[in-house]
Amino acid sequence: MAQHPALYEIREYVHFCCTSEDINNLAYSLMLKDAKKDVLGKSIEDVIKKLTNMSESLAHVPMLSRTHGQPASPTTVGKEMGNFAYRVHNQYSELNALNFCGKLNGAVGNFNSHLFTYPEYEWA
């Protein structure tokens, strides 16, 4: 902030009425949001594409399925890869639906410092 004149002038307000937990949980939330989009999202999309491609290219390759640790009905490698692609896609959809929240309301969540400083402002 010292290197940016506009920010330098307001540096004392960065932690205004906040506990370190207010700052930390917002930072964690933003890191998780970015990781979901930029790291996990791209990796999972790649996995889904590879599984989908495998399900198509291996659609006619037979394999013996198993149930309870024993041989069972025949299936195909492609069908099994398709199942995995479907399941990963469902989990990916659930991950994308997550919203990461945070708090910014003081030590006990009552906006006590905020209200003491600026009682006329509707903090909630």
Task: Outline the structure in words.
The longest helix has 38 residues, at 20-57. The model has no long low-confidence stretch (mean pLDDT 92). The protein has a domain at 40-101. 56% of the residues lie in helices and 10% in strands. It has 124 residues and is mostly helical. The chain has helices spanning 5-8, 20-57, 77-97, 112-117; strands at residues 62-67, 70-76. It has 4 helices and 2 strands.
Backbone CA Rg: 25 Å
Structural class: mainly alpha
Q: Write the element-wise H/E pattern from the N-terminal end onward.
A: HHEEHH
What strand order characterises the main sheet? Answer: 1-2
Report helical residue fraction: 55-70%
Q: What is the number of helices? A: 4
Chain-averaged pLDDT: 92
Quick one: overall form? elongated
Cα-to-Cα separation, first versus last residue: 28 Å
Low-confidence stretches: none
Describe the largest sheet.
2 strands, antiparallel
- Number of DSSP strands? 2
| Strand proportion | 5-15%
Quick description:
The chain is mainly alpha-helical and 124 residues long. It has helices spanning 5-8, 20-57, 77-97, 112-117, and strands at residues 62-67, 70-76. It has a domain at 40-101.
Task: Record the SSE blueprint.
Blueprint: H1 5-8, H2 20-57, E1 62-67, E2 70-76, H3 77-97, H4 112-117
Antiparallel strand pairs: 1-2
What tags apply to this protein structure?
single chain, 124 residues, mainly alpha, 2 strands, 56% helix, 10% strand
